Amino acid sequence: MKRQGLGGTRPNWEGLLRNLRREGTPDRVYFFEHGIDAAMQAALAGRFDLWARVPERSPHVEVLRAMEVHRFLGMELMRVFPPGARISAPTLAGGWAQEHRGPIGSWAELEAYPLERAEAADLSVLDFLDRVLPEDMRVFHVVSVWEAARDLMGFEQICFHLLEMPDLVDALLEKITCFLEAVLSACCDHPCFGAVYVADDLGYKTALMMAPELIRRHIMPRHKRLADLAHAKGKLFLLHSCGQVYELMDDFVNDLQVDAKHSFEDSVLPITEAKRLYGRRISLLGGMDVDLLARGTPETVRQRTRCVVELCQPGGGFCLGAGNWVTSYASPDLYLAMHDEARRWRP
């Protein structure tokens, strides 16, 4: 017997695609999350007994658990992290990125640094999901170009190098991009794989992290290669970028041809305003303030959900979810209130 989703909502992949193509107002609210923290997943699973049928001895038990939670919430897409399939830098104590100087700061260090090899990526989880993932669901893998380079050089150092040694920055970015092209090409060959998802935060709350011409010169061409790869393989290209990045929106729409953008903060640009400004040209994901989902009340969450849904649903091109991701400190009660209220909406 198939498990009934929350509020009777079941994933609908073709419906999601029509929604993201903005082919008209959908008959229900669609949902998307950049990620759902393990603690939130466990809380939801415990409340609704979602993991009772998950085989605990499976080597993919965590993926199966995530699949049950996302399917219960009516989501078509969930993220996975195949081992060895992304480039990451060593972190400081507590998981913090290196702010000043990372392990790569010179040509010699770039040549000597043991970057991950694409052929070593373990995509067996995608082989597994090809067999077990429900046909109305897909997965995506979160990758970064700018953030990987930033952390490998250190934010302070890469800012200097963009002006003083731009060729070195480009060489690192090129190595990262070539790795991602190889890995993502293999990922896209899996039926379960639905979207190339690039997560590169390019802005602060008030401005871009660097001059827009630097982003267009060094980062955008790499993003475009990944977007072109995704579209050539028949997959979505989704972009997550926090902060005040809207000076680049024309680039996202016209050059990258982003299918949907994620991360909307009320303190930067509420998703309702983003819908008014850009909703005819690009689809939008998320939008519910993370702080509200952590410290609000059921009524304030419901009020904000109604406002967001009523303003963002018309014409399609919108999926509801957290403005960033569903953190460990978000309230399960408030998160469920958001979902419940959205399910009450009718066109």
Characterization of this structure:
By secondary structure, the protein is α/β, with parallel strands linked by helices. The chain is 45% helix and 11% strand. The chain has helices at residues 13-20, 38-48, 61-72, 107-112, 124-132, 146-153, 155-164, 166-188, 212-232, 249-255, 271-278, 290-295, 298-312, 332-343; strands at 30-31, 77-80, 138-143, 193-199, 236-240, 260-262, 283-288, 318-322. It has an eight-stranded parallel sheet with strand order 1-8-7-6-5-4-3-2, with helices on both faces. Helix 6 crosses helix 7 (155-164), helix 8 runs parallel beside helix 9 (212-232) and helix 13 runs parallel beside helix 14. The two termini are 30 Å apart.
What descriptors fit this protein?
347 residues; TIM Barrel; eight-stranded parallel β-sheet
Class from secondary-structure proportions = alpha/beta
CATH level-two architecture of the largest domain: Alpha-Beta Barrel
Question: Helix proportion of residues, in percent?
Answer: 40-55%
User: Can you tell me the residue ranges where pLDDT is under 50 for at least 5 consecutive residues?
Assistant: none
CATH fold-level name of the largest domain: TIM Barrel
CATH class of the largest domain: Alpha Beta
Total DSSP E strands: 8
Distance between the termini: 30 Å
Largest sheet: 8 strands, parallel
